[in-house]
Every structure is written in structure tokens, then in C-alpha cells.
Write a structure and sequence with these properties.
The complex is a heterodimer. By secondary structure, chain A is mainly α. In chain A, 77% of the residues lie in helices and 0% in strands. In chain A, helix 9 runs antiparallel to helix 10 and helix 12 runs antiparallel to helix 13. Chain A is globular, with a radius of gyration of 24 Å. Chain A starts with a helix and ends in a 7-residue tail after the last helix. In chain A, 39% of the residues are buried. Classes of the chains: A mainly alpha, B alpha+beta. Chains A and B meet through helix 2, helix 3, helix 5, helix 7 and helix 11 of A and helix 1, helix 8 and helix 14 of B.
Chain lengths: 308, 556
């Protein structure tokens, strides 16, 4: 088990290098000179342009830019934004906000998703099941930003139950609405995954045995059916944590959350390579770690799985 | 349901809104300019003078240094925490702030006297040296300040601004005594005093030069407001509190201004509707149709000192000589400006009659030749035929209009304009979409356009010359279309050396007659500001540059 975990951590190194190289190249390859855009269409003195280009290594060939970036990375220097702030500070401010948002969304979708999914699965074909199926279909079909705008307008503006956007400091209470919107689509998937998995396991031999042994209905459902149905759901949730963190661009835009999604979006537009590479690399780390946790959870959920 | 119409529009426009406005770095990243007014504006209405006003903004692009702030996010903060020799009132007229007098006899040599007894918030006195050192710092190449070109008129700029130059003192600036300095320009420029209210010309204390980076994070200014302790929370908000030491004409009528940073105007608009934001200076495109119903008399729609144009570069082979001139005129006459304004901008703009803006002193809507900017399908066809007789348009060539489409509303109006041109003239016109502003700027800057391009200008300071010289003078910094006409250059120089502003304006308008024939760009419309405010504030006015006069706003 420990050896397995260590090996997985070693795998992080090539994954991280590959990700930074790829992202660095992609930003490098987007057309347009970011320095020219800094002047906002106003003239810029050639000396100033040359100085700024040199400052951000934009005058050097790709491989050299990348090596310089790696060199700084070794001394934990993530580079600077065009406004001269250390990228590590910028990320340090944005990540906690997005992490809070993503965890709230994850808890929301896992809690309600599994409960609704289990009930729907146990009552297959009944009214509750059909309602949940149709509702989740609608949620999947409607784009997030439509849901976001409608909830923001109705709950935030018309009913005034919550603030339409997130206040400075991004307190938990303000993040509830965006977390709901963010988690809603995944909620639908979790419900459907759980439901299918429960229906499959409901008729498994071990469930019949457990029932025949005279175990209580509650124990059969919770310990035998639900626990065994969790493998696909946990896999999904693990991968989803990564996409919740990186894919919150739309939700963060609607609710003006000063998180990673907004940061990434703005720095891509500006062509601010150090920020983009750093944000994506951290997201890659989150993905890899979340998947490691998922793999370890498998062993706990299903005793047949062992990591030697 | 009472809000049925709004909700429907909201959903319908949601897709549109998201693609159009989900960005802060859009098309109209103009210069930041000062919003100001006379003292009579301040504190009117007897409202609550301790209320803290919240307003929308974007994250300042750079540290808060005068010569490095060239966009609105930083500009509106700079204009409140600093004050220069003059500021501009709501109409754009200059009002003396620190200047006691600005004197010249030949429009080339200026003697500037400043008020004594003023100080920065770190305790340093504001002296002639504060100005001279700040301007030298801004101009020197080694400091790489974005606004450095603003000092190009000052004698000695070419030396300090040369690449790799280590010099940092312009010979045109001389300190006479603590409160007096002289400026020598490299040629006569009568509108120089008008520029002095622009951000780049603010003074700086000594502390700024020791560690510009640290100073930019936490500047000590001399304006009506100062940064609160830890007031600049990056990407979140900028908090300003009144500066008790300030004694100029822009006395704060409120207890502070907090700029909330938004990435989309849609989010800010929802906050405004919920009274969670006091002042919004741009209504998002998705709400343009309904904001008047939503806000009633808490909204404004007025022109500001900016315009939109379409550049037809002079390096395009199809637009050379007489045939080129006829084609430019034909295209201009083929565009029905009012139709686009009514249908796409819901009346938020004003059709252009010349190359500047109606809020600028000296503006005239009756410059001879301005009828070329009026829609006239028959006239356009005739002009096009005349051009064809001289040199035929290449068979199958499409007239492209290049534009970035990450800015609000660009795509819609250019497609509409392309349709109008295609319908009127025997050519096909279409939008050439570019995903980002930076890519667009690169194509335009490297002169790689194969057709027309979207352009526009927001004045840095309220003067006709600012709309003409930097854009159409031979070799000028923003002359993206490489336009050059000696007769026009001569008129500009004449206007600059005029002894009075009125005389200068008359000559500048004569120079526009030449532009109306050559059409280096096709003027489209004057920009308008659409803004709104919450039920918690009063006395909201917007300035000549579309920026609200924050200091005059009161709480209720």
C-alpha cells in the first residue's frame, strides 16, 4: 500500500513536466503579441516595448523560454504577471476561494446525488424514480450559464435571499448559490450513476444471501447494496473534483467569484504565460491527487481489491 | 409575472451576453483619463456625506504609477488618489488644481507656477521637483513606463527615450524655484496645457523613485482620496478613503469610494439591480434593451469623448490614388449608421459627423464634406462605378473587416455593416473575426491587414488635436493605417502653433475637411456611456470621458 502510494507520487514528476511543457507551448503558439496589447491600442514607445519584451523573455526562442521557466521553478519562483505581481501570490489568493467553492459543490452533489440515486434505484419505475430521471435530464440538457443566470436573477435579485455576486473575501454563505449551480450538472450524473449501479447490485447473489440470512432491510441496503454500488460513483466524483476546480470559469464569471477559473480566463486572454502554466500545473496536480485518493478508496470499498 | 419581459430577455440574451461580455480585456481598452468637476458640483443635495460609495471597476493592469497607468481600471483610481496641475470638469474644461498659473507667449515655452503648502499623504511636500522628477521618470526608457510617449513633445525626450538609453533627465524641464518650473517643447503645441490633467502628468514624491514597485502597490498621492490601509485587494476591490489634506476643487462629498472588481458587466448589473452596488458605468449589452425600464431615472445615456471608426489602411492596393479615394467614399456612404445604432445599440450611440467627438470644445457638425458620412445608396453606387472606371476591383476579392470578437458587441455591428456594404455595392463584405485583442493588435501593428479593421479612439484629454494628431499625422504613434498627407500635416502644425484655443480649433476643423475627402478611416459613431446607480446614492454625474464623478456622489 505504501509502496503503491510512493510510486504514484513518483509518477507525478513526468506528468508535471509534460503538462508544463505542453501548456507552455500552447500559450506560446497562440497568435498575437501580448506586449502590444498592454498598450490598449494606444501608441507605445519602441524602447518601452523592447524593454518589456525582454523582461518577460518573449524575445527568446521557445526552448529557451521554457528552460528559463523550469530553472526558476526549481527555486520555487513561478514568475511574474504583467502587472509585476508574483504568480505564486496571485494563485495563493485565487486557489483557496475556488477550493472552497469546489468542495461545497462536491459535498452537495455527493450527498444529494447518492441519496436520490439510491432511493430511485430501489424504487425503479415508481413515481420518485421517473421524476428524478426527468429532472436530472433537464439539468443535464440546460447549459450551466442559463441555470446560473436564472438562479442569480430569481434568488439574488428578485427574492433577495442571497447576494447576486460573491462579496470580498468570498464568505461561505455567499458561495452557496454558485456552489449549487456548479454542482447541479454533476449532481444529475451522480444520481444516474448511483441509480444504475444500485439496480444492478440489487439483484446480485450476495444481496439475496444477505436477505436470506435474515439481515435487516436497512443493513442490506446500506452495507451490501450501497457500499458495493459506490465504485463508479467515487471514480466519477474524484475526476469531477478536478473539473469543478478548473471548469468553474462560467460559474465564477456569473457570480464574480475571484477564483482560479476567472484568473485562468483573464490570463489566457492576455497571453500571460507564467500564470496560465502555473494554474494549469496546479490543476494537474489536483487531478492526479484526486485520482490517487479514488484508487485508495477502491480498496476500502471493495475488499477484493488489494494494492501490493 | 411582473418581471416576465426582463426574465425572457435575460434567458434569450444569456448566450449572447456570455460570449460578448465574459471578458474584461475587451476591445475598447482606451486610455484612462481624469474625471473632474468644478467645486460647485461637490456636495450638492445635502445628502449623507459619510456614506461609502461602491462602484464597478476592473483590476488595475499595473502598479499605480502615473506614467504606467493607461487603462480605466487603474486610471479611475489614480485620478482620485492623485491630482495634477489641472483637472477637467464634467464638460471637459480644464480647472486649475495645483497650478497657480501656466503661462506662455509662443506656445513652445511654458512657465508653470504651483500652489505652495500642498503635500503627499506620506508627508512630503509637493514642489516643482515633484513634477519634474515624475515626468523625467515617466519618459526615461530604462523605467519602461507605458505612457512614456506622452512626454514626446518635451525637448530632450528623444534622448531619454532611445532604446538602452541611460539618461533620465529631459533638457526641456528646468526647476526655477520650489514652486516654479519651466517646460520647453521641441515645437510649438498650443494644446499642451490641456494635456496636463492626464494621469501621466501627475507629480510623485521622492519615495516613489526609491522603490517604484512597492510604491505602485501602496502609493502616496495628493488627491481627494487616499488608499485605505491594505485597501488594494488584488482582483477583489480597491478601497479609498477621503484625504483630509486635499484642498482642491474636487472635495469628496462622501465617506469613501470602494471599487469592486468585476470580470463581467453582467454580474455587476445584477448587483446593481439588487442594490448591492451603487454605481455601474457600463450597462452590459444583454441589458441595453431593458435598463431604462429596470432603473428608470437612475440611469444615464450620454455621449463621451470617444468614437468608433473603420480603418482602411493606405497600404492596400485596391485603395490607392483617385480610385481608392472614390471607393472609400462609396463604402462610407453605403453604411446606414443610424440603422445600426437603433437596432444593435438601442440608441446608445450617435452617428458621426466628423472625426472627433461632440463633447470636445470646438466640435462642429457642419464641416464641409461631412455629407460623405450620410447613408446614400445611390450616391455610393455611383462613386463605386466611377472608381471601377479608373481601375477595376479584383474579381472575387472579398472586402474584409478585421475585428477582435472578445470585446462587447463588436461582432454584431460589424456583421451588420458588412451586410449593408454587400447589399449596396457590387462587392462582398464580411467580418474577419480574430479571437483576442492581443492578436488583433499584433496584426494591426505589423501592418498585415488585407482589408479594413475596427478602430476607435478614446480621448486622453479633451482636445480636438488629440483625436487628429496621434491618429492621422504622418508617422504618428497610432496611425495604424499609415495615412500620410502633407497638406493635412501642415494644417495640424498650423493649428498647434495658433495663439488661442479658438483659433487652433478653427484650423483643426479645416484639417478635417481634408480627412473627409481622403477618409483614412471611415467615422462611424460617437460612443455613449450608459450607466446606472442604486437607490442608496444621489448626485451621480458622468464626466466628459464617461467616467462618473465619484467624489461628488452622496449617500441617501
Amino acid at each position: 500500500m505504501i509502496r503503491f502510494t510512493l510510486l504514484r507520487f513518483l509518477q507525478l514528476i513526468p506528468v508535471f513536466l509534460g503538462a508544463t511543457l505542453l501548456v507552455y507551448f500552447l500559450v506560446f503558439a497562440t497568435p498575437g503579441n501580448p506586449i502590444a496589447a498592454l498598450s490598449g491600442g494606444k501608441p507605445m514607445s519602441p524602447a518601452v516595448e523592447a524593454a518589456l519584451t525582454a523582461q518577460y523573455n518573449l524575445d527568446k526562442p521557445f526552448w529557451m523560454q521554457y528552460l528559463l521557466y523550469l530553472k526558476n521553478l526549481l527555486s520555487f519562483d513561478l514568475g511574474e504577471t504583467f502587472s509585476g505581481q508574483p504568480v505564486s501570490d496571485v494563485i495563493g489568493r485565487a486557489f483557496p476561494v475556488t477550493a472552497r467553492l469546489a468542495i461545497m459543490a462536491l459535498v452537495f452533489e455527493a450527498f444529494f446525488g447518492i441519496i436520490f440515486g439510491v432511493i430511485a434505484g430501489l424504487r425503479k419505475g415508481k413515481l420518485f424514480d421517473s421524476t428524478v430521471l426527468i429532472a436530472s435530464l433537464i439539468v443535464i440538457a440546460v447549459p450551466t450559464f442559463v441555470l446560473g443566470f436564472i438562479l442569480q436573477f430569481v434568488v439574488g435579485v428578485k427574492l433577495a435571499w442571497a447576494k447576486p455576486t460573491v462579496s470580498p473575501g468570498a464568505p461561505w454563505s455567499d458561495l452557496i448559490l454558485p456552489a449549487l449551480v456548479l454542482g447541479l450538472v454533476s449532481l444529475a450524473y451522480v444520481i444516474r450513476l448511483t441509480r444504475t449501479s444500485v439496480i444492478e447490485n440489487k439483484n446480485a447473489d450476495y444481496v439475496r444471501t444477505a436477505t436470506a440470512k435474515g439481515l435487516s432491510r436497512r443493513r442490506v441496503v446500506v452495507v451490501h447494496i450501497v457500499r458495493n454500488s459506490m465504485i463508479p460513483v467515487v471514480t466519477f466524483l474524484g475526476a469531477d473534483l478536478g473539473s469543478l476546480m478548473g471548469g468553474a470559469i462560467v460559474t465564477e464569471g456569473i457570480f464574480n467569484v475571484p477564483g482560479v477559473g476567472n484568473l485562468l480566463y483573464l490570463s489566457i486572454l492576455k497571453g500571460e504565460t507564467p500564470t496560465v502554466v502555473a494554474v494549469v500545473s496546479v490543476l494537474v496536480l489536483v487531478f492526479v491527487l484526486a485520482n490517487l485518493v479514488v484508487d485508495l478508496l477502491y480498496a476500502w470499498l471493495d475488499p477484493r481489491i488489494r494494492y501490493a | 409575472m411582473r418581471y416576465n419581459r426582463t426574465s425572457k430577455a435575460l434567458v434569450l440574451s444569456a448566450a449572447l451576453a456570455l460570449t460578448l461580455t465574459a471578458c474584461g480585456g475587451g476591445g475598447d481598452q482606451g486610455a484612462a483619463t481624469s474625471g473632474a468637476a468644478t467645486s460647485t458640483d461637490a456636495g450638492g443635495g445635502g445628502g449623507n456625506a459619510t456614506a461609502v460609495i461602491t462602484a464597478n471597476s476592473t483590476e488595475p493592469q499595473n502598479g499605480l504609477l502615473p506614467a504606467n497607468t493607461n487603462e480605466v481600471g487603474g486610471g479611475r483610481v489614480m485620478d482620485l488618489i492623485f491630482t495634477g496641475l489641472v483637472s477637467y470638469d464634467a464638460t471637459g474644461a480644464p480647472v486649475n488644481e495645483l497650478a497657480e498659473s501656466i503661462e506662455t507667449t509662443d506656445a513652445q515655452n511654458y512657465t508653470i507656477k504651483i500652489k505652495s503648502g500642498q503635500k503627499f499623504t506620506n508627508g512630503e511636500a509637493v514642489t516643482a521637483a515633484s513634477f519634474v522628477n515624475a515626468w523625467n521618470f515617466g519618459a526615461a526608457a530604462k523605467n519602461a513606463q507605458l505612457n512614456s510617449y506622452f512626454f514626446e513633445s518635451i525637448k530632450g525626450y528623444d534622448k531619454v527615450s532611445a532604446e538602452k538609453s541611460t539618461e533620465d533627465k529631459m533638457e526641456g524641464l528646468k526647476i526655477v524655484d520650489d514652486n516654479t518650473f519651466t517646460v520647453e517643447l521641441s515645437r510649438a503645441e498650443s494644446d499642451f496645457p490641456l494635456r496636463l490633467g492626464y494621469t501621466a502628468f501627475y507629480p510623485l514624491p521622492e519615495a516613489a523613485f526609491k522603490d517604484p514597485k512597492a510604491f505602485g502597490e501602496n502609493p502616496a498621492g495628493n488627491g481627494p482620496y487616499k488608499l485605505a490601509d491594505g485597501g488594494w485587494q488584488h482582483n477583489v476591490q480597491v478601497q479609498l478613503v477621503p484625504n483630509a489634506d486635499y484642498s482642491g476643487p474636487r472635495k469628496p462629498a462622501n465617506g469613501g469610494v470602494t471599487f469592486k472588481i468585476y470580470t463581467t458587466f453582467d454580474a455587476a448589473y445584477q448587483d446593481l439591480l439588487a442594490n448591492n452596488l451603487d454605481i455601474l458605468d457600463q450597462i452590459p449589452p444583454s441589458a441595453l434593451q431593458n435598463y431604462k425600464t429596470d432603473l428608470g431615472d437612475r440611469s444615464v445615456n450620454q455621449p463621451y469623448a470617444g468614437n468608433a471608426t473603420m480603418t482602411i489602411p493606405s497600404y492596400l492596393p485596391e485603395f490607392q490614388g483617385e480610385a481608392g479615394q472614390l471607393r472609400r467614399q462609396a463604402i462610407s456612404k453605403a453604411i446606414n449608421r443610424q440603422e445600426i445604432i437603433d437596432n444593435i445599440f438601442f440608441g446608445g450611440k450617435q452617428a458621426a459627423k466628423e472625426f472627433t467627438s461632440p463633447v470636445i470644445d470646438g466640435y462642429s457638425d457642419a464641416i464641409p464634406g461631412s455629407d460623405v458620412l450620410t447613408f446614400d445608396a445611390e450616391g455610393a453606387k455611383k462613386l463605386w462605378e466611377q472608381a471601377e472606371a479608373i481601375s477595376p476591383w479584383p474579381a472575387g476579392k472579398v472586402f474584409t473587416i478585421t475585428s477582435n470578437i472578445d470585446g462587447a458587441g463588436n461582432k454584431e455591428y460589424i456583421e451588420a455593416m458588412a451586410n449593408q456594404i454587400s447589399n449596396t455595392l457590387p462587392i462582398k463584405a464580411e467580418l474577419n473575426p480574430i479571437p483576442t485583442f492581443k492578436e488583433m493588435r499584433t496584426i494591426v501593428g505589423e501592418k498585415k491587414l488585407t482589408g479594413a479593421s475596427r478602430a476607435g479612439w478614446q480621448a486622453d484629454y479633451p482636445s480636438l488635436y488629440n483625436f487628429l494628431g496621434p491618429l492621422y499625422g504622418t508617422g504618428a504613434g497610432s496611425n495604424d493605417g499609415d495615412y500620410s498627407n502633407p497638406a493635412f500635416d501642415k494644417k495640424l502644425a498650423e493649428g498647434l502653433s495658433a495663439t488661442s484655443v479658438e483659433e487652433g480649433n478653427k484650423i483643426f476643423n479645416e484639417s478635417q475637411e481634408i480627412l473627409l475627402k481622403d477618409l483614412p478611416v471611415v467615422p462611424l459613431w460617437y460612443q455613449g456611456v450608459q450607466g446606472g446607480w442604486s437607490t442608496k446614492v444621489a448626485d451621480v454625474k458622468f464626466g466628459w470621458n464617461g467616467v462618473p464623478l465619484y467624489y461628488a456622489v452622496t449617500g441617501k
